[in-house]
Design a protein that fits this description.
Layout: E1 23-30, E2 35-41, E3 53-54, E4 57-62, H1 66-74, E5 83-88, E6 98-103, E7 108-109, H2 129-147, E8 161-163, E9 166-168, H3 179-205, H4 217-227, H5 238-241, H6 250-264, H7 268-275, H8 290-314, H9 322-325, H10 333-345, H11 347-350, H12 354-361, H13 365-376
Antiparallel strand pairs: 1-2, 2-3, 4-6, 5-6, 7-8, 8-9
Helix pairs in contact: 2-3, 3-4, 6-10, 7-13
């Protein structure tokens, strides 16, 4: 088989033929049910042990889609559907180009499991942990294809499969253009997939109460960042893109405030940017959700307790001004940042779900703080946690 690729300076010489390491034992065709039963075996039979067969699924293909066959057979990656064998479709006697690819098991179309509610987390923010993982795996699999000098050629939600909790890129198609152009189209298709989710969230929000609306600011921020990518840097952007707040989990969000931002509290340039920003409406301890107001009270109590312990250790009396007494000043954005940093640092001690409360009160806080750090450093380099 000679899987073709579009011509391009990054193309590579392909083998004229390839052989599957799987031996076809039986192939049964039921034309009425249009169903294949294929048993595959790998390796030699061991004396005293029952022979085991590899489970496969049949997938309709075209004989001339050699681009797809090459990717599925030669690229080994958990997010790329792998092909074990290929046969002409014996149920399609009138179509000489009909083929059946016998591929690793898959559960169905990825899009079918991502109704609007499946894309949001506990505070109605996009992404949910599962959807975040799916988007990461789509991009990781796509990048792997690019790194091998190839392209997808037909990336969209309806061509992407999944098995259990793992994304399986599929539906590859050859395109009559250079590899570089085809990879760029892949990238634009990836952006379009994300835009589909954002547009659906907007439509969904139009008919539900305010408290139930889906927050898609992190998704929109990711899309905006992707829109700034230049095509010449396409194969070098993976790590930068995966550091966007959209891909942060609880651990990274906690580390961002407890470590990254906390270290910046002694940076005069950064703190000046905070003081002069429009980070939150003042007083921020009043213009907030009831849950965040409770968090501020918990942090004030925790701060006061720490101050009392320090005073007791020093055997000295405390002062009466706001900072010395442990209370945060709602008119100071510096105190707002310090309060959030303290909450993420001491979330176990104050016994509140700090992450949900902070994000519910300030949906764009990670985007805003990341931008403030980048601005204070006079650079556009990523400042997310590693």
């Amino acid at each position: 088989m000679d899987p073709a690729q579009p011509k391009g300076k990054r193309g590579r010489k392909e083998p004229k033929d390839f052989k599957s390491h799987f031996e076809v034992i039986t192939e049964l065709v039921n034309p009425k049910k249009r169903k294949y039963v294929l048993k595959l075996v790998k390796g030699d039979r061991v004396e005293g042990m029952e022979r085991t067969y590899t489970t496969v699924c049949s997938k309709k293909e075209r004989v001339d889609n050699k681009h797809a066959f090459y990717i599925m057979h030669n690229l080994y990656h958990k997010n790329i559907l792998s092909m074990k064998a290929l046969s002409r479709d014996k149920t399609e006697s009138t179509d000489p180009l009909a083929a059946v690819a016998f591929v690793e098991p898959y559960s169905g179309l990825l899009w079918s499991v991502y109704e609007p509610k499946a894309c949001v987390d506990y505070v109605n923010h996009i992404p949910s942990q599962r959807f975040q993982s799916a988007v990461r795996e789509v991009f990781t699999g796509l990048d792997f294809i690019w790194q091998n000098g190839l392209y997808h050629g037909n990336l969209n939600w309806k061509s992407t499969l999944y098995h259990e909790s793992t994304v399986k890129l599929a539906g590859f198609e050859e395109q009559a253009m250079s590899i570089e152009e085809a990879q760029w189209i892949d990238f634009l298709c990836f952006i379009r997939m994300l835009e589909d989710v954002s547009k659906r969230a907007i439509s969904f929000n139009a008919s539900i109460p305010e408290d139930d609306k889906h927050v898609h600011t992190n998704l929109d921020s990711l899309i905006a960042t992707l829109r700034t990518v230049e095509r010449t840097s396409l194969t070098k952007i993976k790590e930068t893109i995966l550091e966007e707040p959209f891909f942060w989990d609880f651990g990274k969000r906690t580390k961002f405030f407890a470590n990254t931002v906390s270290l910046k509290l002694n940076d005069d340039n950064f703190m000046q940017k905070v003081r002069t920003s429009n980070l939150r409406a003042k007083p921020w301890d009043k213009n907030c959700t009831p849950q965040f107001r409770q968090l501020v009270q918990k942090m004030n109590d925790h701060r006061q307790k720490q101050k009392n312990e320090e005073q007791k250790a020093k055997n000295s009396g405390g002062q009466n001004d706001a900072q010395e007494s442990g209370a945060y000043n709602g008119a100071s954005l510096e105190h707002y940042v310090r309060c959030v940093c303290g909450a993420y640092t001491h979330w176990r001690q104050i016994k509140l779900n700090v992450d949900d409360i902070v994000r519910g009160n300030h949906p764009t806080i990670f985007i805003d703080m990341k931008r403030l750090i980048e601005t204070s450093e006079g650079s556009t380099s990523g400042s997310g946690p590693t």
